[in-house]
Amino acid sequence: MKIGIIGLKQSGKTTVFNALTGQAAQTGYGANKVEVNMGTVPVPDSRVDKLTEMFKPKRQVNAVVEYMDVAGVEGEKAVDPAILNQIKVTDALLVVIRAFETDAVAHPFGSVDPIRDFQSLMDEFLLSDQAIAETRISRIEKMVRSNKNAPEKKEYDLLQRIIAHLEEMKPLREMVLKDEERKLVRGFQFLTQKPVLVVFNTGEGEDSTELLSRFQEVSAEMENVDAITVSGKIEMEVSQLSAEEQPMFMEDLGLEALAKDRVIQASYSLLGYISFFTAGEDECRAWTIRNGTIAQKAAGEIHSDIERGFIRAELVNYNDFIALGSMAKCKEDGKLRLEGKEYKVHDGDIINFRFNV
Ligand SMILES: Nc1nc2c(ncn2[C@@H]2O[C@H](COP(=O)(O)OP(=O)(O)OP(=O)(O)O)[C@@H](O)[C@H]2O)c(=O)[nH]1
Ligand SMILES: [Mg+2]
User: Fold this and answer.
1) pLDDT class for 78, splitting at 50, 70, 90?
2) How far is the CA of 188 from the centre of ligand 2 (A)?
3) Distance separating alpha carbons of residues 285 and 10, to the nearest angstrom
4) How high is the pLDDT of residue 173?
5) Mutate which of 10, 26, 79 to test ligand 1's pocket (most atoms within 8 Å of Cβ)?
6) Are 345 and 293 in contact (CB under 8 A)?
7) What is the pTM of this model?
8) Ligand nearest to the CA of 101
9) Closest CA to 88 of 239, 230, 193
């Protein structure tokens, strides 16, 4: 899973990035104006730990989240194409919004108002998508006008619908597209098509109940948008401590869970992601897929050959496996099942794919 960290200048994006990755990338005005900060974090999953304990494989491989921290956006105009280009490979946007008060850091709009900033960023993303769609339309317009059978006709009509939708100030997350249509426009990587996890970057010990309830009000009708609060600066400090020191500081600060873990959890649920496992003598490994993915597609996560040559999936669910204690016992009890390509993989399935290439 790839997550792009985006937001207004000086909202604390790099601070949050550091908190999430444990890195010490430079913060402060324009510190990452050109280059992108990148970090990969293993997804904590006690089930993989447990499988490793039981299978004793040579290695354990957790799923990973990749974070990408780009430069700040201006606000009130389309997002800089350089930033769009960097962020387009991501599955979701983590939108960092300043909620901390301090005179030491300037706000691009002159005052701290998280809800205003959220709305302004959402508008900015709409403008960006409009600009992308319009540029493409003007490029193919002539061809489509002069030739009724032009191969670009379908794309052209769809882009017209997309523009009409965006002009109503509605994000593309809320536009129903057929699979075929989705494919047609996938290359554009429209910003408003990506799920949004808002991170309100609050100061230390600030009560954010009211902020979150105001957010619920303004986002009630929005699809695939969620928010959490994170005390960026503090979380960054905790992330620089050793694993032994962290629990003590968390207790002192009254943190039940680290932002690092909360963000991953919120992202999985926002994106509707689940995990399946492969387990054997060589490795125990977690894989991330969208809920509802069929077995053959899930196999493709591991290797395209396995997807292409898919024969069947032999599987047992993690909970059954743990309850019974061994594969042999699962087989005896009929918990080890054979499933075909159309089987919808469940969270926690331990799968052995049979394939032929
Ligand atoms: N008081 C306080 N200051 C913070 C907090 N988070 C970030 N800052 C400060 O705000 C300034 C900007 O932080 P960055 O993390 O660099 O912000 P950014 O969004 O990456 O900035 P650009 O990349 O320039 O857009 C730094 O001086 C941080 O120390 C916070 O939670 N509380
Ligand atoms: Mg930064």
Assistant:
1) confident
2) 25
3) 38
4) 95
5) 10
6) yes
7) 0.92
8) 1
9) 193
215 and 252 assigned to the same domain: yes
Judgement on whether residues 9 and 104 belong to the same structural domain of the protein? yes
Rounded mean pLDDT, 18-37: 90
With beta carbons less than 8 A apart as the criterion, state whether 70 and 83 touch. yes
Which CATH number is 323's domain given?
Answer: 3.10.20.30
Ligand nearest to the CA of 112: 1
Using a CB cutoff of 5 Å, list residues around ligand 2, an ion.
13-14, 32
% of the chain beyond a pLDDT of 90: 89
Mean pLDDT value across residues 154-163? 95
Strand order in 92-98's β-sheet? 37-42, 64-69, 2-6, 92-98, 196-201, 225-230
Q: Which CATH number goes with the domain that contains 8?
A: 3.40.50.300
- How far does the centroid of ligand 2 lie from the alpha carbon of residue 29, in Å? 7
Residue 248, domain extent: 2-43+63-111+195-270
Distance 202 CA to ligand 1 centre (A): 11
Rounded to an integer, the average pLDDT of 58-75 is: 94
- The enclosing domain of 174 has a CATH number of 1.10.150.300
Q: Are residues 101 and 19 in the same domain?
A: yes
Letter for the amino acid at 233?
A: K
Q: Of the residues 166, 192, 218, which one is the last residue of a structural domain? A: 192
Report yes or no: 231 and 238 within 8 Å, Cβ to Cβ: no
194 Cα: distance to centroid of ligand 1 (angstroms) = 24
Q: Is residue 153 part of a domain?
A: yes
pLDDT in tens, 293-338: 999 999 999 999 999 999 999 999 999 999 999 999 999 999 999 9
